[in-house]
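FORM 12-B: Structure-to-Sequence Request
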């Protein structure tokens, strides 16, 4: 491998502990969902991962089903990771959504979690992932089985840390209690959706993660691009996720028009703070003491560069926070 990564790659990024663990995560992490191996190909994925790493982004997030066809994101990113320093990176993947036909191809049984991770490791070309997630709660499988399967996977060395995603506060609490009662590997991290347009974790989840000593990495902090300036004009840009993917490629979801009024007001506040809307949206997530990292997506290198600059100002005054609550109807 001939690529040389920036020597100053650790000089700008902020690293924060995931709860009461030894795991440091960059304040900004990068995910592959729908972009890499999806509506963006390998060239762009490689450029984005390299640039992200040069800027200190050491964490890349995947799942078994990401990309088109499902699994393609792990394949594409795996080829790129072969040319990157594995020990400087935190790679996560997940299982929970439908991946193959039949009763063992989704949810959180031991059978599915073990088989799916073996497939993911092959696609990624890795011996282990750093974090393995239960991607969504399973209403049928006992949590004892799911948490014991994750614990087994850690003991086998196929994953270092365990996470859950999309669990409600109550479901998370129950999972924590199961790990404590059975002496299983603790949950190091929770991955919920959280943004200026989706504040559910503030009242449902973050008390629980704090008490349990688990970290939090928030996904879709830009509401998939809605919290940027790209949809503020009259036209939906041709190269945007809205045009390429939402509604199976049929374009803009009319329901977003209601949100745009809020987004415009938030954009004014961002300008007053001397930030872009995307930067303010990320900074606002990171202001919360329970949030370890924000998990962004990117379809261009420039988006990563802009977003990392959010770290220049993650402080909000009481007045700004109040105004944000008013605008977002919280
Ligand atoms: P974001 O909310 O960050 O949206 C990313 C999209 O926003 C980009 O693809 C790009 O869209 C646009 N964007 C980003 N930065 C800018 C910018 N500066 N200016 C203009 N547009 C910008 O996150 P995602 O929804 O992509 O989710 C991020 C990651 O979170 C995923 O990759 C995945 O790893 C994880 N995730 C986890 C889920 C779970 O269930 N656990 C569910 C969803 C995501 P465009 O293509 O239009 O340029």
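FORM 12-B RESPONSE
SEQUENCE OUT:
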């Amino acid at each position: 491998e001939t690529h040389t990564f920036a020597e100053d790659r650790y000089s700008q990024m902020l690293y924060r502990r995931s709860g009461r663990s030894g795991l440091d995560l960059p304040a900004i992490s990068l995910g592959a969902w729908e972009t890499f191996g999806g509506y963006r190909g390998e060239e762009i994925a490689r450029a984005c991962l390299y640039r992200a790493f040069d800027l200190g982004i050491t964490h890349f997030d995947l799942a078994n089903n990401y990309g088109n066809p499902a699994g393609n994101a792990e394949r594409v990113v795996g080829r790129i990771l072969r040319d990157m320093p594995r020990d400087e990176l935190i790679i996560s993947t997940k299982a929970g959504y439908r991946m193959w036909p039949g009763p063992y191809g989704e949810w959180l049984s031991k059978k599915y979690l073990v088989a799916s991770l073996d497939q993911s490791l092959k696609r990624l070309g890795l011996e282990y992932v750093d974090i393995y997630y239960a991607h969504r709660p399973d209403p049928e499988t006992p949590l004892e089985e799911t948490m014991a399967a994750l614990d087994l996977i850690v003991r086998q060395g196929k994953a270092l840390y365990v996470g859950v995603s999309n669990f409600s506060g109550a479901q998370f609490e129950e999972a924590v209690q199961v790990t404590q009662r059975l002496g299983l590997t603790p949950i190091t991290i929770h991955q919920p959706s959280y943004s200026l347009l989706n504040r559910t974790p503030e009242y449902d989840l973050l008390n629980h993660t704090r008490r349990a000593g688990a970290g939090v990495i928030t996904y879709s902090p830009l509401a998939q691009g809605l919290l940027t300036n790209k949809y503020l004009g009259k036209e939906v840009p041709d190269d945007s996720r809205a045009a390429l993917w939402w509604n199976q490629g049929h374009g803009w979801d009319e329901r977003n028009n209601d949100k745009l009024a809020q987004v415009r007001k938030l954009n004014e506040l961002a300008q007053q703070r001397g930030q872009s809307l995307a930067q303010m949206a990320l900074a606002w997530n990171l202001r919360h003491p329970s949030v370890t990292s924000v998990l962004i997506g990117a379809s261009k290198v420039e988006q990563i560069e802009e977003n990392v600059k959010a770290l220049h100002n993650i402080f909000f005054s009481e007045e700004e926070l109040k105004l944000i609550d008013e605008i977002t109807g919280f």
